[in-house]
Design brief:
By secondary structure, this protein is mostly helical. It has one domain. 71% of the residues lie in helices and 0% in strands. The longest helix has 31 residues.
Amino acid sequence: MARQSISFTPPNDEWLKNQIESKEYSSKSELVNDLIRQARQQQKQIDWIRHKLDKAEKSGFTSASKREILAISKSLLRG
């Protein structure tokens, strides 16, 4: 594993220490790695949503009502 030296602001360092003291994590490294994993997962979700929104915007608009859209969606889900 790559070794890094990073600095934290006092409030962030205090928060990290509190997480370690509460036995939530065994070390700052473990905690920082977990936070990075969470951020990466969140970014994947954001990218997926952004892709879906772009695709939807490019597909055009509809004049169907909310009820009609819901009925169509339910029909598609049922197969």
